[in-house]
Structure formats: C-alpha cells, structure tokens
Amino acid sequence: MLNAIRQTKELSHESAVQMCLAAIAHANALPATIGVVILTPSGVELAAVRMNKAPLHALGIARKKAYTSASFNVSSLSWQEKLKHKPNTMSALLREDNFTYLGGGLPVIVDKEILGAIGVSGATEQQDIECAEYAIKKLLSSLSPST
C-alpha cells in the first residue's frame, strides 16, 4: 500500500493567536472593530477573537470566510468573480453552511502548502481583507530567518 499515510503541516495555536493579535492591531490603526478566526487546513478552529463593539455576527462570518478559503485554497472574495455568471452554482454554494463569497478570508500558504486560513469580519470588506493580509504578512515575516 504505497502512499497510505500523508503528513501535513498546519499552523500552531501560538501562530494562530499571534495572527489574531496582528489583525486586531491593524484594525485598531484603521480604526475598525473586527472578529478574527484562524482555522487549520481541515477546518478545525485554532483561535478566534471578537473585539469589543465588533458586530455580533463578526465571528460567525469570519469563520465562514476562513472555512471557504481553507476549503478551496483561494481567497473568499475570488468567488465573486468565479460565480458572477453562474447563478445556479452561486445559489447552491450559498446554501452551504460554511461558504461565503464575502472578502476577508485568505488561505495561509507557506512554501506552496496551505497551513491554515484566516477570516476577518466586522469592518468594510476592504478593511477585512487588509487586516487578514496584515496578519499573514506578520506571520511570514516571523518565519523569515533574521539577517
């Protein structure tokens, strides 16, 4: 039985918490209030934080954004363009509990391998995306060897 076992990598819970804090730091600078969820590639929640005064739905929507990105290894926003001319597919996917085409969900990719996903919600769509991108950038910079 060749290739019966596959090893996978995923974010640590420490990295997930640091990503949440980075996204929140960026939101504070905007200023905005958000919820942030970090998932493993298989959709297991590693960390979730909702800022005070963030919308009550922020964490639930952030989770959907992260889950969509983890599922398909693309940004949640990319589905807007992919589904623009496919209303039947869009309708079917929107009936799925953990799918959304709202921006703010991004896969976390290191060395061409997905290690997790981040979802941010509560601000404008563009601000959610910026917070998620900032958190990933901070993570990637922490992985780079110091010179």
From TrEMBL:
It holds the Pfam family HbpS-like. Gene3D superfamilies: Haem-degrading domain. It comes from the Bacteria. SUPFAM superfamilies: GlcG-like (SSF143744). InterPro entries: GlcG_carb_metab_protein, PduO/GlcC-like, PduO/GlcC-like_sf. This is Heme-binding protein. It comes from Marinomonas maritima.
